[in-house]
Structure formats: C-alpha cells, structure tokens
Prior knowledge:
It is built from nine helices and 13 strands. The protein has a seven-stranded mixed sheet with strand order 6-7-8-3-9-10-11, with helices on both faces. A four-stranded antiparallel sheet has the order 2-1-4-5, with helices on one face. The protein has a two-stranded antiparallel ribbon with strand order 12-13. It has two domains: 2-84 and 159-252, Rossmann fold; 254-285, no CATH class. The chain has 285 residues and is an alpha/beta fold. Helix 3 (102-113) crosses helix 4 (118-127) and helix 3 (102-113) packs parallel to helix 5 (143-154). It is 31% helix and 28% strand. Bound molecules: adenosine-5'-triphosphate. Residues 11, 13, 18, 20, 38, 40-46, 199 line the site of adenosine-5'-triphosphate. Adenosine-5'-triphosphate (ATP) is lined by residues 11, 13, 18, 20, 38, 40-46, 199. GO terms for molecular function: ATP binding; ATP hydrolysis activity. InterPro entries: AAA+_ATPase (IPR003593), ABC_transporter-like_ATP-bd (IPR003439), MacB-like_ATP-bd (IPR017911), P-loop_NTPase (IPR027417). Residues 2-240 form the ABC transporter domain. Belongs to the ABC transporter superfamily.
Amino acid sequence: MIDCEGLVKIYKSDDVEVVALQGLNLKVEHKEMIAIIGNSGSGKSTLLNILGGLDRPSAGKAIVGEWDLLQINEKERVAYKRNTVGFIWQNNSRNLLPYLTVLENVETAMMVAGKVDSAYAKQLIEWVGLSHRIHNKLVQLSGGEQQRTAIAISLANRPSLLLADEPTGSVDVQTSDQIMNIFRSLNQETGATIVIVTHDLSLARKVDRVVAIRDGMTSSEMIKRSASESEQSARTQEEHEEYAVVDRFGRLQIPEELRQKLGIQNKVKLSVEHAKLMLEVPNTK
Ligand SMILES: Nc1ncnc2c1ncn2[C@@H]1O[C@H](COP(=O)(O)OP(=O)(O)OP(=O)(O)O)[C@@H](O)[C@H]1O
C-alpha cells in the first residue's frame, strides 16, 4: 500500500533550510496497521502530511496504492485526498461542526466527498461506539466522544488509507485505550490500512509493527512476536521484538544508546558465527 524509499523533505523559509526527512524508507502492506514513533522533531508529522497529500515531497520515492506522490499534479492530488485518504488529528476542532449532531457531522463529510449514504453513516457511528449519541450535538459530547466522531468522519469517504497524528494526545488513558481498540476493529471491518503517529510507546505496542523514526530516517522496527515466542517472553512482558533496519544498500543504523554504551565510533569489525552476524568494537587503545 505504501512504498517510500529515500524520501526527502526540505522546508525552505527565507535563507534557512530544514531537512525534515533525509532518505526515509517505509513499506506498509495493504490492510496493515502500524504505529510510527519518534522524538519531537524527528519528522513524524512531515511523513504523515506527505502520505496524506497535504505536503509535497522534495525527492525520493513515495507511492501510495496506484499514486506516485512525487509525480501527481494538483488536480490528481485533490482526487487522491478525496478518495484515498482519511485523516485524524490530535485536535479535531477543524473538521467538527459543534452545533450539528453526530449523524449530521458524518453525513456532511459524505456530502463534501460527493455522496451521502445514511446507512453507512449509521454503521460508522456504531463501529466507533456512539449509536446512543447519534442525535446529540457535538457540544454535548465529551472530548473522547468527539474524537470518536472525528474517526467516523475520517472514514466517510471510504478511504483505503487512514492516517492518524497523535489521535490520543488529548484524552485520558482509558479513552485512548478505547480509541486504539476502535482502530483495530475498523482495520478489520473496513480493511483500511492504518498508520498511527504517537510518541506513546505503550499505545504503539497495541499494533503489529512499530516503526521508529530518528532524525528523519527510519531507524528500527518492533514486530509483534508470534504466539509461541510470546509465551517464552511472557515473563518479560515484552510482546514486540526490536529490529534494526537495513536499507537496500545494506546500510544499518546502530541506535545512539548502543553506540555510546559500547563506545562505537566510526567502524566495527564484522564476522559471521553460527549464522549470526557479529559486530565487534575494535580496540583503539
Ligand atoms: N512548515 C515547516 N517549515 C519549516 N520547518 C518545518 C516545517 N514543518 C516541520 N518543520 C521542521 O521539520 C522537522 C520535523 O518536524 P515534524 O513536525 O515532522 O516532527 P515530529 O516528529 O512530528 O515532531 P512532533 O512530535 O513535535 O510533532 C523539525 O525540525 C521541524 O522544525
């Protein structure tokens, strides 16, 4: 569904240039649900804005489904945003209409997308657990309920890709748990590919794969263990296993913590022992 390779985004303002993404690689399968984590400023929102068609990439490859985001013209970009993606922000006030009901909000989004389907609007509202609030105005709802309405709205155009930027950032722990469960069931019900940006690792662990971004590049991936491996790791409570990413040129990033801990500077010695790749820190003393 998503294939980014060597993706670069440079923001230019006056004479200052900020390289927000510097050769990022990311592949996401159709119907996969992943989380992207990373420190503030690592490039998470930049990536999501590019995938959502809100921002243009500067260089590299960014393909979503049949769309090549580096090649599409403005008209195609509007069609891409309208037909392919759904977007959820931490603060959804910009796409919620407070004095309309939940149902009217979802139907209005459908109208903007071109076709109102009341039965599907009700289905979406049921999926996000708001059937009992369907005729309430948004001003009468809690923050978590408004966020769930925003999720229903984001699906109004039946997107094949759902992008969520810190969707649980302004709700309490219990509500954020509930929202992650809603994403999981929507992923199964609608078959949409879901990419969630968060800096909360405990939420990220609720998905099958977590991609970590550091300095505008993918640095590591955590993949959920299989059932048997999970049993073995039950004692440690760790359900994901961390992998370093190797790009297509064979480049490997060693996390800063490990480099510091092991005193790795500019080279390591490679050897293979029993089908394991060993990295040895040369003795420089
Ligand atoms: N419109 C812009 N103009 C100039 N620089 C920008 C712009 N948007 C982002 N940046 C810069 O690009 C880098 C990546 O920003 P980005 O917002 O993608 O990070 P982030 O990982 O989403 O951070 P946060 O978790 O704080 O939202 C930062 O250095 C940021 O200052």
